[in-house]
Write a structure and sequence with these properties.
Layout: H1 26-65, E1 73-74, H2 75-79, E2 90-94, E3 97-101, E4 105-109, E5 114-119
The structure holds zinc ion.
């Protein structure tokens, strides 16, 4: 019979342990469970901030979309709403510009502190 390896610490799983167990001992089982809860919590924080960012961009977009200067919005508009520049889903290229995608919007912060927003 092949040795089974603990999914948490990498030690062999004792033969006398339940054959479906992925862990060598209860400590490893609970440590792994705890780590996964921390990971889930981080993911939830990320998603929460992502939604928060999305709402900020949406409201700014709505506010400016009637106007012709939608292309370049002052970064202060975002900063004053506590926009988190580090949270987005992915990066993409729109009209030759590298943009950060949220959910239904994408944006680019230019070095001159103006922001361009796209509705996707
Ligand atoms: Zn273990």
């Amino acid at each position: 019979m092949e040795n089974r390896i603990c999914a948490f610490c990498g030690d062999d799983i004792p033969y006398n342990r339940n054959k479906n167990s992925r862990y060598c001992c209860d400590e490893c089982y609970y440590e792994n469970k705890k780590n996964r809860a921390i990971e889930m919590n981080k993911l939830n924080n990320h998603e929460r901030i992502l939604l928060y960012n999305e709402r900020i961009v949406e409201s700014i977009y709505e506010q400016y979309s009637d106007k012709k200067y939608i292309l370049y919005i002052s970064g202060i508009e975002f900063i004053s709403r506590k926009f988190n520049w580090n949270i987005y889903t992915s990066e993409l290229i729109i009209e030759g510009i590298k943009a950060k995608k949220l959910l239904h919007y994408a944006y680019t912060l230019f070095t001159n502190q103006t922001v361009r927003v796209w509705k996707l």
